[in-house]
Amino acid sequence: MSSIVLSSICLYVGNGAENWFIVANSNTQTLAIYFVAAQFALMTSFAFEPVRMWWFAKRFEKHNNNAALYGYEATRCLNIAIFISLVMLILSEQLLVLMLPDNYAQSATWVPLLIIVVIFRHHADLLNIGCFLVHNAKYVFVINAAAALLMLALMAVLVPKYLMTGAVFSLITVHGLRALAFYITSQMLAPIPYKLSQVIVAWLCLFILILIGYSNTDYVTIKRLLVLSIYGAYLVRLYFHDISKIAKQLATVCGYKYA
To answer: Whole-structure pTM over 0.85, yes or no?
Structure first.
């Protein structure tokens, strides 16, 4: 338990310390622009929270019962997380423009990059079970502590020179490496047959959405919705059996309720 508590303390460095570096090297207006973008990106994480809570309550039992099925379901949760992130990427930028004054418009340019950070966190959370199964989760603390130290080092070097660009680059780099470290360590401790090839389409769609947003083209939202619909169709095809099963269960429940 102590390892988990200590690792949680280390997580603060990777999820908030950048605010101190930005305000120390710039001004409150720059911090406000970043903070708004960060809050909209955080909404992406909150949107996935119901699925996360359901999965975390069951994942150890599922792993003990069938490791292969666990790998399939973990990958499915990851695809759901990325799909929600893509939806929130489109919605958050629109909401930001509609709800906030023009001087916060710059925040919209940072939201997609911060959502990449959120997606890396999803990878770390969903592909790390092996780190909790042995040695009292000490590897969780080791990885989070290393990530925290690297974050502080990158922030100290990059933020004074590049401000928000340096902060966002540091976040993406550290959380990407952290997700990779959790995955590799977990697989070394408790190998699980994840189907990560199924996530390639998700990352491809993410990069296309970001490129569309940064390109000076017309009908950006329409193009993004088209890409999102393609990814949604891919998920329906990939998990059609699961969707059909859930639909039948809902139909049965509704049948009993209104009988």
So the answer is: yes
Helix (H, G, I), strand (E, B) or coil at 105: coil
Q: Is residue 13 within 8 Å of residue 141, measured between CB atoms?
A: no
pLDDT score, position 136:
74
The full DSSP string for 63-103 is: HHH-HHHHHHHHHHHHHHHHHHHHHHHHHHHHHHHHHS-GG
Task: Give 60-93 pLDDT, tens digit per residue.
Answer: 999 999 999 999 999 999 999 999 999 999 998 8
Q: How far apart are CA 148 and CA 17, in angstroms?
A: 9
Type of residue found at 204: L
Range list of H helices, the chain: 2-14, 17-25, 28-65, 67-99, 107-126, 129-133, 138-162, 164-189, 200-214, 220-238, 240-258
Listed by start position, the domains of the chain span: 2-232
| Better pLDDT: 204 or 216 | 204
- Rounded Cα–Cα distance for residues 37 and 118 (Å): 12
